From TrEMBL, chain A:
It comes from Raphanus sativus (Radish). This is Acyl carrier protein. The gene is LOC108834602. PANTHER family: ACYL CARRIER PROTEIN, ACYL CARRIER PROTEIN 1, CHLOROPLASTIC. Coiled coil: none annotated. SMART domains: PKS_PP.
Automatic annotation (TrEMBL), chain B:
GO terms for cellular component: cytosol. Gene3D superfamilies: 4'-phosphopantetheinyl transferase domain. GO terms for biological process: lysine biosynthetic process via aminoadipic acid. It comes from the Eukaryota. The lineage of its organism: Eukaryota, Viridiplantae, Streptophyta, Embryophyta, Tracheophyta. Residues 48-136 form the 4'-phosphopantetheinyl transferase N-terminal domain. Its EC number is 2.7.8.7. Keywords: Transferase. Residues 144-233 form the 4'-phosphopantetheinyl transferase domain. This is holo-[acyl-carrier-protein] synthase. Coiled coil: none annotated. GO terms for molecular function: holo-[acyl-carrier-protein] synthase activity; magnesium ion binding.
């Protein structure tokens, strides 16, 4: 995970393998500009936007664009939802197959079905690639 | 199970709230299938009127779609659902915009009758499906329904058999493998896809409740266009032994719409009467009644 936490944040350490996600108001790397009041109760779940590497996100976007026959200038970024691009269930499954081929992984159907955005796909891919090693 | 495909051309002269042609609810063993071809809806003022029916959340959803065509289709899908359901009400003054929806615990949309103003509660079930070029809404009473539509010509970017091996059951792969002509094979693959999707949607418990490789849908020998569902159960002492449970509880229909799309309809039949599962060959694909072309009501005549 690309985030670092200050020592005063007490929370469950999460490994790549767990599906729990942490997000803050500001995306990406967490630095000291995280406004955090230790006296306030710490939420039990925080979520982080886009823990996946930009290269993975880019590759996923490329595969999605190809599957959906999108124009080159169509913006596809981490937050992009497949449904917003007009992907139906058959497209989503084909995207999953394309991703499996490109990254040489296998996605369990239940997990694959839950992927709704580019970054979710990228994160799942990195998780599976990580497990392979 | 009988499926009626309905559509009509209707000219409306009203300026404010359009008048909806009322409908009778389907009978217990019947599914009504309404569909619309987005390409036939060209009037921007008509689309503007349609957007009046949508809830704020639905409008946001439409706005999120990337591109004008996708936005239009999302708008038409909501319009089709709302106006179709409204038409089954006996109160003709009912406003499609006042329909409220909720989701079951697995995310399947349903009508939230408690919160609809002026609507009589009905044992009505619906399900929608859309592709770029066709949007369909199926309606039943007393039984859950699942609909899936696909363009007949839809190209699969992967090898069809590889795709099937990855996601379908062994029996289905074997069936597809016997079809030598790639075009015919692709078509059968698509038909199977729509049937399997329709089942999962009818079940309404999300994909994890019925992964595609746990059930086989096959044509029923001796029926024209009949299909049956067989579940592969892995719960046996011997992992190599798979028991198959084929029952008549789920009914399927596969139709061709507008000459361009396959539409699969799946409903639950609690009476499971095998004899009644017939496909009426009157008309291009059996159903009782008003069949036709595309559903475009509210065509303005200005």
């Amino acid at each position: 995970m690309a985030t670092t936490f200050s020592a005063s944040v007490s929370m469950q350490a999460t490994s790549l393998a767990t599906p729990s996600r942490i997000s803050f108001q500001k995306p990406a790397l967490v630095r000291t500009n995280l406004s955090f009041n230790p006296r306030r109760s710490i939420p039990t779940r925080l979520s982080v936007s886009c823990a996946a590497k930009p290269e993975t996100v880019a590759k996923v976007s490329e595969i999605v664009k190809k599957q959906l026959s999108l124009k080159e200038d169509q913006k596809v970024v981490a937050e992009t939802k497949f449904a917003d691009l007009g992907a139906d269930s058959l497209d989503t499954v084909e995207i999953v197959m394309g991703l499996e081929e490109a990254f040489d992984i296998e996605m369990a159907e239940e997990k694959a079905q839950k992927i709704a955005t580019v970054e979710q796909a990228a994160e799942l891919i990195e998780e599976l690639v990580g497990l392979k090693k | 199970m009988r499926t009626s495909v309905m559509s009509q051309m209707q000219r409306s002269f009203s300026i404010d709230l359009p008048s909806l042609i009322p409908l009778q609810l389907p009978s217990r063993r019947e599914t009504h299938l309404w569909y619309i071809l987005p390409d036939e809806v060209k009037s921007t003022s008509l689309l503007k009127r349609y957007s009046q029916f949508l809830s704020p959340i639905e409008k946001d959803r439409v706005d999120q779609m990337r591109g004008d065509e996708l936005k239009k289709n999302a708008l038409l899908a909501r319009t089709l659902v709302r106006t179709t359901i409204a038409r089954y009400q006996t109160n003709k003054a009912v406003d499609p915009g006042s329909l409220m929806f909720k989701k079951n615990m697995y995310g399947k949309p349903e009508v939230d009758w408690q919160n609809c103003k002026n609507y009589n509660v009905q044992p009505l079930h619906f399900n929608i499906s859309h592709t770029d070029s066709l949007i369909a809404c199926g309606v039943t009473v007393h039984a859950p329904v699942g609909i899936d539509v696909e363009d007949k010509e839809r190209k699969i970017k992967h090898d069809v058999l590889a795709f099937a091996k990855r996601f379908y059951t062994t029996d289905e792969v074997n069936f597809l493998a016997t079809i030598l002509d790639p075009e015919a094979q692709r078509k059968e693959f698509i038909k199977l896809w729509t049937l399997k999707e329709a089942y999962v949607k009818a079940l309404g418990k999300g994909f994890s409740a019925a992964p595609f490789n746990t059930f086989t849908i096959q044509s029923k020998p001796g029926t024209e266009g009949g299909y049956s569902l067989c579940k592969t159960s892995e719960v046996t002492a011997n992992p190599l032994e798979k028991t198959e449970e084929c029952n008549g509880r789920w009914k399927f229909d596969l139709l061709e719409l507008a000459g361009s799309h396959y539409a699969a309809v799946c409903t639950e039949d609690d009476q499971a009467d095998e004899g009644a599962f017939s496909v009426d060959t009157e008309g291009s694909i059996g159903f009782s009644g008003l069949f036709i072309t595309s559903f475009s009501f509210l065509q303005e005549l200005l």
